[in-house]
Amino acid sequence: MAHIAKIFAGRAQQVLQVAAKQPQLAPRFYSAAANLEFIKTEVTGENKNVAVITLNRPKALNALCNGLMKELSASLDEFERDRSIAAIVITGSEKAFAAGADIKEMQPNTYSKCIMGNFLNDWTRVAKCQKPIIAAVNGYALGGGCELAMMCDIIYAGDKAKFGQPEIALGTIPGAGGTQRLTRVVGKSKAMEMCLTGNMISAAEAEKSGLVSKVVPADQLVAEAVKLGEKIGTHSQLIVQLCKEAVNTAYESTLQEGLKFERRTFHATFSTEDRKEGMTAFVEKRPAKFNNN
């Protein structure tokens, strides 16, 4: 268990450095937004504490090219540094969240180029974000699009959404988590069926299998995802990040390792002002006022 303790110490130290949230009174658009080609960004919600990143390659059904993924990573860097942002929503259009990776860009690749360039290694920024990320999926989430959604912490789907890993029909396999994250979420049999046939599943089936946590009408999807982000934003950002780490540890480790990590993280919350405030507010029957310390 020594390595688990070491992992916890590093993660906890990083998260415990989060400072007080800075209130923002007006809508904000980021300075880099004017230079974005493949995505759009904005900050929304009643308290202007939810960032929305919209994939914006409509003619290509939001196919994930290197340029888009670089812009997405840079925007996540910026939102993660912004202490006023409590949660992030990633969405696309009603027609497509992302219909896959950009096949035209990928087609000329060779095995040696993939190995020497460590292809797709820099596509994992979403999975490494400390702040909660909600995928709001309308339309097609196929291949890399499905993988991108699974890198997020929570998936909300529009009622016409479609999920799938069709790489097998292109003579290849998923390369950004499709065989790994999907199996952990929906189980071996369903993951095998999806990956070996390339068949799509509906939003309703995705919810039934545990891939999606909620299905809503397509025109209400982003609003519902923002509402979820706002609910998360009512809690301590510090504790939210610790809790996210604990859930991710369950996803990636054995039960005993996860239980040890959870217990030590629980213990660590007793060193925070927000834990003291939360319990004191409960005892005093008043709303808690968290300061992210």
From TrEMBL:
Keywords: Fatty acid metabolism, Lipid metabolism, Lyase. One of its GO terms (molecular function) is enoyl-CoA hydratase activity. PROSITE patterns: ENOYL_COA_HYDRATASE. This is Probable enoyl-CoA hydratase, mitochondrial. The gene is 106082145. Signal peptide: none annotated. One of its GO terms (cellular component) is mitochondrion. Pfam families: ECH_1. Belongs to the enoyl-CoA hydratase/isomerase family. It comes from the Eukaryota. PANTHER family: ENOYL-COA HYDRATASE, MITOCHONDRIAL, ENOYL-COA HYDRATASE-RELATED. Its EC number is 4.2.1.17. It is an enzyme of class 4 (lyase). GO terms for biological process: fatty acid beta-oxidation.
